[in-house]
Each structure stands twice: as structure tokens, then as C-alpha cells.
Design goal:
By secondary structure, the chain is an alpha+beta fold. 36% of the residues lie in helices and 15% in strands. The strands form 4 sheets. It has an 11-stranded mixed sheet, with helices on both faces. The protein has a two-stranded antiparallel sheet with strand order 4-5.
């Protein structure tokens, strides 16, 4: 029998509205799952159970009275620990904020609550979201739900693990170099990077940069779209916020046979591991024929590495230079590396990067005149040990930066297109494999529709269905906190 915490969010919300499932019953199931398995993975790092229970009982009463219910009414939600949440410690994964308790909700949190979601806790993240290995000096490492000794990626790693293990049906996340998509791929769930401004951010330090975005995560495409519909909005505090954002839930039906799809394992430059390229070829070979046209092709991504390196460093300078100078002992190696890199660049370097970014963007627009979507692996490697701060090499070749292994994701970030990571079975190592679907400029609804169509098509095949972690194994596994190197930056 399916436990309430394992229900898709869409099904749970329908049952709540039909009085077949009480919000308090769903919350109790999620809390029980957290208490049963979180010792093994360390995903839900700050818990708000008491206030959540009060909110759930109020949600019960609203259903009983026949009140108009919000689209997320009664659904427990995990909030990434970079997003400020009123009355709940928000550390950003940094000792500097170890005891910081915000007085107000960040916009994305406020919108989720207004839609009826109930905050159950904060999910773990690397320090200030730097790097894609969810590990910090406050809460320690978060383990992969399929093997707690391996990385869950990041920086929304805690959210991905919470979803995969049934701790919450929906979670928030954010993405600069793939932080919604990378952990989704490693953990067998869905992560969606929307177009910049679609989910507004009132806390982004450099408001005009399109690189960092906020977005939804869930176990299915429909659940992801349900959350997106509640957190997408206008917000005058975000200069990139979109005034008209359309409808995303439910994803509209799409006829794949009328679409043109480009398939690439590496965008022509990403250091894709052989096991990932092999999984990509095998899995896409099972469904390529569903598209009207399916070709091996890639947009021209020359210069993407250099552009992302410079523009990312500029963002880190704006956000973390003062911390690095005033409290160097409390700043980890990934943040320091980006700040130090940024200090080496000149205004001419920044101008060159922005100019080249524009050129790459325009080349992509020409590419999308010939194709409707691009399909790639979500991430370049299969999960490795979380003790590895970052992959220094891939298939024996050195990586150029600590985030070079995220190139499949940041190729999309640089041009600002929407993209989703869809779970598609496991790789040769038995670890989850994620497929990235990239849409045209502003094509958020199309990406969700294509992902939903593929999800439905692939769900019945064990080779491509969403993998599910062994909950019993996690229950009897020893605490991750007992593993060597659990707490720390590196």
C-alpha cells in the first residue's frame, strides 16, 4: 500500500480536495519518513514540525468548512536553505549564518505558502550554493538516496534527496550552473530551470544577471508544473520578473511526431564521461523515433566555458568579496576560488564575456530555427563519493575548474533558455540517469509538455522508468554523520 508521503503531489492535492486525505495525515506521513531515513542521508537539516502541524490542522479545518483551497493546499514543502524563511534558521550552508533566523519570508517562500503549501523544513545546500556537492561546515554532507556514500550533486541536493525519499512531495531550489538539474539527475527526480525572471527573486544581489534563477523540484513533471504555477509571478523587486507567464499546470498535450529534436551528448565541448555518453545513446535510442525529426546536432557553443567562468566570478565578487576579506576562516574553498578568480579579471574581461555571451545566444537562436528542442544528458558524470570536493578529472582528463563538470548545464544557463532534468532509469553503475530537455527562448511550457510526454511514454519500461531508492535500506543504514569527513568544507 502506498504511504501518503509517496503519493505524487497532484494526487495528494486531489485527495485533499475530495476529503480522502487530510493535510494533517499527509504531514504526519512525511514527518515519519524524515524521522525514519534522514539519519542516512541528512537532507532535511532544519525542521519546522511544530508549526507545520499547526498549519496542517488549520488546513484540515479549511477543507471541512468548504473553503476555497489554493493549488498547493495542505502539501508539505521543503525549502532550500538558501531561501529565507520566517522564523526558521536559514544558514546558507555557512558558519557566518549558523544562527540566522529571518523575520520575513523570501518571495518564493511567501508565494508557496499563499498557495497553501506547508513548510516542513529546510533542505541542505553547499555553502552559498557554490559547487555541486551538497556538503558544508554547518550541517555536513548530504548522501545520495541510492548510495549515501555518494554525492547527491547540488546545490539543491537536500531538496532532491528529500523528494526521492518521500520526505516532501514538492521542494524549492535554485540554479546557476545546474543546481536544479544536477541533483535531480543524481537522485532520480525532476528539476526545472525556468527562464530568467519567471520565478522572481527579491534577494538576488545583482538583479540584472540572468544566470541565477529560482525554480521547482518534484518527483514528476506534473508535480513540478503544479509548484511552478504557484511560484511564477511578477515582482517589482526583481528587474527581470516576467509580467505575463502563461499557464503551466497541467502541462499541455504535445504531439512529439510534429517536433524536431536535436540530440547531443556534450554540446560539442562538455567533458562527458563515457558511462554517461553510453547511457545517453542507449536510452535515447529507445524513443528517438517518437519525434518527427531526430538528428545528432548541437548549437555552436564556442566560448561558453570562458563566458561562464568570468560571469560567475563577477556574481561571486558582488555577493561574497566582503565575507572573504573580513572572515576568511569562515569561507570555504569553492567561494574563495571564485572570489580570487574574479579579482584577477578586468573590466575588459567582463565586457568581453558579456559580448561573447550575446554572440553565443544569437547562434542558439539560429539553431532553434531548425529545431524545437535539444536533448542531452543532464550532467557529465555518474555519482561519485561526496568526499570528493569536485571531480578533478573525467575519464583521465583534468577538468579546468571546480565546476567544469557542470558544463552540460551551464551551456544552457549562459543563453537563458529553459531546461528540465527528467529521470530516465539508471546508468551502468546502477545510479540514476537524468535526461536534459532544453527548449527555445521562453519555451517553458513546451519543455514541460515534451517532458511530460516522454515521462508517460517511458514509465512502463524498466530501462527508462523513474528509479526509486530502497527506503528499507535507508532505514537500516547507519547515520551518515558517522562517516569520515562528514562535517567541513573539503
Amino acid at each position: 500500500m502506498t504511504e501518503p508521503c509517496d503519493l505524487p503531489a497532484v494526487d495528494a492535492r486531489r485527495m485533499i480536495g475530495c476529503k480522502q486525505l487530510a493535510p494533517s495525515e499527509l504531514l504526519a506521513s512525511c514527518i515519519a519518513r524524515i524521522e525514519a531515513v534522514d539519519h542516512a542521508v541528512n537532507a532535511m537539516v532544519a525542521r519546522d514540525f511544530d508549526r507545520a502541524r499547526v498549519a496542517a490542522f488549520r488546513a484540515d479545518d479549511a477543507v471541512a468548512r468548504g473553503d476555497e483551497l489554493g493549488p498547493l493546499h495542505g502539501l508539505p514543502i521543503g525549502i532550500k536553505d538558501l531561501e529565507e524563511t520566517e522564523g526558521l534558521v536559514t544558514t546558507h550552508g555557512s558558519p557566518i549564518f549558523r544562527d540566522y533566523i529571518p523575520l520575513a519570508d523570501e518571495g518564493i517562500v511567501a508565494r508557496a505558502k499563499a498557495a497553501g503549501a506547508i513548510v516542513i523544513g529546510k533542505t541542505n545546500t553547499p555553502e552559498f550554493g557554490a559547487g555541486a556537492n551538497t556538503r558544508n561546515a554547518v550541517y555536513g554532507a548530504t548522501g545520495n538516496p541510492f548510495d549515501p556514500a555518494k554525492s547527491c550533486a547540488g546545490s539543491s541536493g537536500g531538496s532532491a534527496v528529500a523528494l526521492a525519499t518521500g520526505m516532501a512531495p514538492i521542494c524549492t531550489g535554485s540554479d546557476t550552473g545546474g543546481s536544479l538539474r544536477n541533483p535531480a539527475a543524481f537522485c532520480g527526480i525532476v528539476g526545472f530551470r525556468p527562464s530568467p525572471g519567471l520565478v522572481p527573486s527579491d534577494k538576488r544581489g545583482i538583479g540584472w544577471t540572468p544566470l541565477p534563477v529560482l525554480g521547482p523540484m518534484a518527483r514528476t513533471v506534473a508535480d513540478t508544473a503544479l509548484l511552478l504555477g504557484s511560484i511564477a509571478s511578477d515582482d517589482v523587486r526583481d528587474p527581470l520578473a516576467a509580467r505575463g507567464y502563461g499557464r503551466f499546470y497541467p502541462p499541455a498535450a504535445v504531439d512529439l511526431s510534429r517536433l524536431r529534436a536535436a540530440f547531443t551528448p556534450d554540446f560539442g565541448f562538455a567533458p562527458t564521461e563515457r558511462v554517461v555518453a553510453q547511457a545517453f545513446a542507449e536510452k535515447t535510442g529507445l524513443f528517438r523515433g517518437a519525434f518527427g525529426r531526430a538528428e545528432d546536432a548541437s548549437p555552436d557553443c564556442r566560448g561558453t566555458d570562458e563566458v561562464f567562468e568570468v560571469l560567475r566570478a563577477v556574481i561571486f565578487l558582488g555577493s561574497h568579496l566582503e565575507k572573504t576579506r573580513s572572515r576568511p576562516a569562515d569561507v570555504g574553498p569553492n567561494v574563495r576560488a571564485n572570489v580570487e578568480e574574479g579579482l584577477r579579471y578586468s573590466a575588459a574581461d567582463a565586457a568581453r564575456a558579456m559580448t561573447e555571451q550575446t554572440a553565443i545566444y544569437r547562434r542558439w537562436q539560429g539553431f532553434f530555427e531548425r529545431y524545437d528542442v535539444i536533448v542531452t544528458p543532464s550532467i557529465t558524470i555518474s555519482p561519485r563519493s561526496w568526499r570528493e570536493l569536485y571531480p578533478a578529472e573525467i575519464d583521465g582528463v583534468a577538468t579546468r575548474t571546480y565546476f567544469h563538470w557542470l558544463a552540460l548545464a551551464y551551456a544552457v544557463t549562459v543563453v537563458g533558455h529553459p531546461a528540465i532534468s527528467l529521470p530516465v532509469g539508471v546508468d551502468a553503475h546502477g545510479m540514476p540517469f537524468g535526461l536534459q530537455i532544453v527548449g527555445p527562448r521562453g519555451g517553458d511550457a513546451l519543455v514541460l509538455s515534451v517532458a511530460a510526454a516522454l515521462e508517460a511514454m517511458l514509465a512502463g519500461d524498466a530501462r527508462t522508468a523513474r528509479p526509486v531508492p530502497d527506503i528499507w535500506m535507508l532505514k537500516v543504514t547507519g547515520p551518515i554523520s558517522g562517516m569520515a569527513g562528514f562535517i567541513g568544507f573539503d
